C-alpha cells in the first residue's frame, strides 16, 4: 500500500528543542505511525508496533518559517498546583513551521504484522463509515491538520525516499519511550529509488 499525504502546515519539534521550537525537516517515522493509527481510529499506540513503513518526500524540501508564538511555561507553574493563568505563565517563544509538505507512505503488505494495519487502512479509505474515530487527523501536533490521505498516483510527482544510512545527514527519531524519554534514532539520506533500506520498523 502506498499512500499520498498532504499537510499544508506542520511542525516536528526536535528532541532537544526547548524555548526555540526547531523542527525536523521531514516527518519522523514515529509521527507517521501515530497519524496512521489516528486515521483508523486506533487509540492504543502499541496495537500495530512492529510494522514496516517507508517515507518519501514529493517535490522540493518544504520551506521553513519562523514565527513568534505565545507558549505556556509549565516549569514556573509547578508550585501553583496545576493552575496556569495565561497572563502569568505565558511567554513568547520562536517556533519553526513547515509548509506545503507532501509525502508518500509505503507499507509493507507482505509482512504479516503490517498487513493487519494495511487492511484497516484500506477499510478506512474505502468505507470510512465502518470505522470509529474522533478528532481531526493531524501529522505532528494537534493543530497540524492533514489536508487529505489517499492512494498515491504517479501524477502526484517524483518521490525522494528516505534511506537508512548511518553516514547520512538526516537524523530522525524512530521511537520515543514516553516513560524513560529515551529515543531510538536513525540517520537517513535521500534516494530517487526505492530500496530495501527504505523500510523502517516501528520497535515492538
TrEMBL record:
<keyword id="KW-0051">Antiviral defense</keyword>
<protein>
    <submittedName>
        <fullName>Type I-MYXAN CRISPR-associated protein Cas5/Cmx5/DevS</fullName>
    </submittedName>
</protein>
<dbReference type="GO" id="GO:0051607">
    <property type="term" value="P:defense response to virus"/>
</dbReference>
<dbReference type="InterPro" id="IPR013415">
    <property type="entry name" value="Cas5_Cmx5_DevS"/>
</dbReference>
<feature type="compositionally biased region" description="Polar residues">
    <location>
        <begin position="78"/>
        <end position="89"/>
    </location>
</feature>
<feature type="region of interest" description="Disordered">
    <location>
        <begin position="70"/>
        <end position="89"/>
    </location>
</feature>
<dbReference type="InterPro" id="IPR013422">
    <property type="entry name" value="CRISPR-assoc_prot_Cas5_N"/>
</dbReference>
Amino acid at each position: 500500500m502506498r499512500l499520498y499525504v498532504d499537510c499544508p502546515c506542520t511542525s516536528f519539534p526536535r528532541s532537544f528543542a526547548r524555548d526555540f521550537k526547531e523542527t525536523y525537516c521531514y516527518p519522523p517515522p514515529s509521527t507517521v505511525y501515530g497519524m496512521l493509527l489516528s486515521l483508523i481510529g486506533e487509540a492504543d499506540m502499541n496495537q500495530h508496533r512492529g510494522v514496516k513503513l517507508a517515507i518519501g518526500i514529493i517535490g522540493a524540501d518544504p520551506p521553513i518559517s519562523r514565527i513568534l508564538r505565545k507558549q505556556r511555561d509549565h516549569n514556573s507553574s509547578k508550585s501553583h498546583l496545576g493552575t496556569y493563568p495565561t497572563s502569568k505563565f505565558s511567554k513568547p517563544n520562536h517556533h519553526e513551521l513547515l509548509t506545503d509538505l507532501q509525502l508518500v507512505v509505503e507499507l509493507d503488505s507482505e509482512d504479516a504484522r503490517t498487513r493487519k494495519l494495511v487492511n484497516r487502512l484500506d477499510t478506512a479509505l474505502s468505507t470510512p463509515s465502518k470505522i470509529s474515530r474522533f478528532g481531526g487527523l493531524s501529522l505532528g501536533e494537534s493543530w497540524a491538520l492533514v489536508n487529505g490521505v489517499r492512494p498515491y498516483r504517479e501524477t502526484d510527482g517524483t518521490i525522494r525516499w528516505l534511506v537508512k544510512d548511518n553516514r547520512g545527514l538526516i537524523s530522525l527519531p524512530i521511537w520515543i519511550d514516553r516513560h524513560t524519554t529515551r529515543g531510538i534514532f536513525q540517520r537517513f539520506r535521500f534516494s530517487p529509488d526505492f530500496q530495501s533500506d527504505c523500510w523502517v520498523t516501528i520497535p515492538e
